[in-house]
Amino acid sequence: MRRNRTFFAIGEEPLGKIRGHDIELYLDLERPYPPMLRRPPYPESLKTSKQIEKNVNELLYMDVIRKIGHNEIVEVTTPVLITWHDGKSRLCGDLRELSNYTKADRYPIPRIPHSLDKLAKAKYITKRDCMKGFHKNGVKPNHMKLLRIICHMHIYEYTRLPFAIKKCTIPLPKDDEHNISRRNIRRLDCSIY
């Protein structure tokens, strides 16, 4: 854990982050983008509006989103939704339309049965910060403009990987690209899904 301490929330940082592997998003289309990628906010009830404010403030504090400046060009906006589970709310962008235009990664995440096979002989199994697990990966600064959300308060962009993105790329060093499965998987101490 000490070797990977930046992954965990320690001290002043309220949320850990995987360093050095920021996400990239590539679209299958050129500018100008279709109108479906720039949408206004959805109508909100008073209850939903208050929950959006609460969730936005929490994500700002955790450095998961940042406020967009008034002079920045905005080409992509996604309305926010509040999802409810057991009385708790979670803010997420309606990124379904954006996911239709993103290019798939050459190295997709492992299938669940393969991950469970790896855990079959494990001595210890633990879960850490599962609620905020998606927000562990950063997004490269020049790719954040595609992850903009809009609500009644303002326009924000994700600085970390949000929920609901189906296809994104985690860049690997060029010398490791072909040897990743042989060299690194044998020494795998944990499986993160």
UniProtKB/TrEMBL annotation:
It comes from the Eukaryota. InterPro entries: DNA/RNA_pol_sf, Retrovirus_Pol_polyprotein, Rev_trsase/Diguanyl_cyclase. This is Uncharacterized protein. It comes from Austropuccinia psidii MF-1. The lineage of its organism: Eukaryota, Fungi, Dikarya, Basidiomycota, Pucciniomycotina.
